Amino acid sequence: MSSVPALPPPAAHRDLPGLHEAVVRWFDDAARDLPWRDPDCTPWGVMVSEFMLQQTPVVRVLPVWRAWLQRWPRPADLAADTAGEAVRAWGRLGYPRRALRLHAAAVEIVRRHGGQVPAAHDELLALPGVGAYTAAAIAVFAFGDRQTVVDTNIRRVHARVVSGRALPSRSLTAAEVRLAEELMPADDALAVRWNKAVMELGALVCTARSPRCEQCPVREACAWVAAGRPEPEHAPRGQSWAGTDRQVRGAIMAVLRAGAEPVPARHLAGPVDQAAGIEVEGLTPGALRALDALHGLAAPEEQRRRALDGLLQDGLAVDGAAGISLPG
Length: 328
Prior knowledge:
Strand order of the largest sheet: 1-2
Shape: globular
Order of helices and strands: HHHHHHHHHHHHHHHHHEE
Oligomer: single chain
Helix content: 40-55%
Structural class: mainly alpha
Number of helices: 17
Strand content: under 5%
């Protein structure tokens, strides 16, 4: 990989008002019509979207978000249900611990905030499962607060337009946070739109692998383009799936989500005679199909046991007298 040359501050960085105007004007025309951006969307709807959108594309989130808000339109509605039902409704979004944390956050919102998502950044940050990014995003997108939002899309735009680098660092750095703060408009309302606009620019145009530079509203001021689009210092890392513990965990969770009754641990973790088929009394047809799919992975017994133990340790499954089930 080629090293990134030393560059003077790009025009976009020197002319912040021009940068803000160009990106926000582009956003006004190009922004996707997403339900959590609707002015009538509640802070709870925004909060649910932020939990679901972590490491998950919009197209997968949309149907689950709509179903979730129809079933649990307020934090109190989710808090009154079980954590297991939250995990079940999470479906195939992946990283189901987010469902547990969102349920725990709903319980805390009811207990400490009268059932209303708090507007204060420090109170958001104190909720279960809410880190620095999520707290800032909820404060900005639900309450119009002036906070600096820094996600992967925003970091990538900043890296290219201002720093002349193809990609941001693998992990968020203090320098990236400082740069994001320096680029924030002074006006509160404009700062909110700026956060939305830069995030959308990174999602739709300034993408990781195939940036659409010809569509970029600040192409002429982009330091990366001016430098001849140097190669990244590191390649974007894709997450493998087939054959991993994550795949086996997901297959086990699919069995538990589909079933109304606990599943004996031996059917999840132990060897099964494929020729004999799978016949387990009390399981729904959907659970049987999911169990068949689990065994169809042909994962080693050690891996299946490791995956099941991990789910139990994470609280995503519980081991009761009748077998393994979602948490109550």
